[in-house]
């Protein structure tokens, strides 16, 4: 399925990957209808990473992550959607 989606969006050819960014965009576009189903996978990865830590992270690390996330959301809302529909 992914090879077909990549070929459809022009990110994959016989020689291999042309551009990793366009390939990621093609994969995201192919999974667009099922993107919500990847939410538990991402959350499970975050939980596994948290429990793998040797010590509790400091509060400032959470605040930096929150600021980064809010900034990313603000920039994403301002920019047009670049994925093919």
Structural features, described:
The chain has 85 residues and is mainly alpha-helical. Helix content is 61%, strand content 5%. The chain is built from 4 helices and 2 strands. It has a two-stranded antiparallel ribbon with strand order 1-2. Strand 1 (12-13) and strand 2 (16-17) form a beta hairpin. Helix 1 crosses helix 2 (20-30). The two termini are 17 Å apart. The relative contact order is 0.11.
Head-to-tail CA distance between termini: 17 Å
Structural class category: mainly alpha
Strand content is under 5%
Instruction: Return residue spans where pLDDT drops below 50 for at least 5 consecutive residues.
Output: none
**What does the average pLDDT come to?**
78
Q: Rg to the nearest angstrom?
A: 17 Å
Keywords:
85 residues; mainly alpha; 2 strands; 5% strand; extended
Quick recap of the structure?
This protein is mainly alpha-helical. The protein has four helices and two strands; from the N terminus they run αββααα. The model has no long low-confidence stretch (mean pLDDT 78).
């Amino acid at each position: 399925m992914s090879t077909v989606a990549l070929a459809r969006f022009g990110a994959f050819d016989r020689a291999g990957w042309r551009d990793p960014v366009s390939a990621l965009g093609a994969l995201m576009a192919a999974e667009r209808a099922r993107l919500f189903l990847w939410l538990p996978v991402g959350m499970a990865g975050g939980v596994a990473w948290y429990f793998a830590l040797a010590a509790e992270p400091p509060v400032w690390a959470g605040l930096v992550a929150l600021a980064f996330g809010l900034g990313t959301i603000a920039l994403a809302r301002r920019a047009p959607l670049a994925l093919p529909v």
